[in-house]
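Example A, followed by Example B.
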Amino acid sequence: MSFFKNLGETVKDTASTIGAKSMDVLEIGKLKLQRNKLESVIKDKKFEIGDTVYEDHKRNAAPDADKLIKIFDEIQDIENQISELDEKIKQL
């Protein structure tokens, strides 16, 4: 009887471990998806920088430094969020 009891406990422990690992894999997938979305936002912000500079150039005007600094700060904030996500992924 103890053999079957031990076998049952082993199966139960294994199932719990697999369930926990599956949750980790799912959580990592969600975090990576968030990371990809943030990277896409950074690309959009970089295009915005280029458009701003080009439009100012077309008007023979100096680039709007305040507008550019605002975009740079937004990119830095997003990069910080990505770093936080990377840290969470490493912990899992």
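Example B, a separate protein, is given below in the same form.
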Amino acid sequence: MASPVQASLILCDAATAEPTSGKVNMLGAGWSVTSSPTGPQAVAVLIKIPWDRTNQQIPLRLQLMTTDGAPVRLEQAEGDGRVGAEAHVEAGRPPGTAPGSHISAAFVLNVAPLPLPAGRYEWRLEIDGDTVAVADFTALA
């Protein structure tokens, strides 16, 4: 059985990821209350990939959910209106990396302002179909 992937989510105003280093550059990081409609925001995803899962594509899904666990859906011309992203992350194993080590990877989702009703929301990160990290926030009217 493969080792579990560890992850953390950080809400911020804006962010960029450096794909080769696993680092994230963030502005306005760590908030948990915002207005509605929201301003632009970013979700920084910091991932620790176990040694035995390097050099493999690992599926992930980052999705905005309501407090009752339903995906947030916005009206739009195309698609189902869900707010989030699906991707694969893959980290190489540098030569000489000791078994048991973790390799850093990063993913950032920058999000345009959202017309959310006032309430509590959470970003959920799923890896291999399991929720591994959550970041919640409150949108005030």
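On Example B: The first strand starts at residue 6 and ends at 12.
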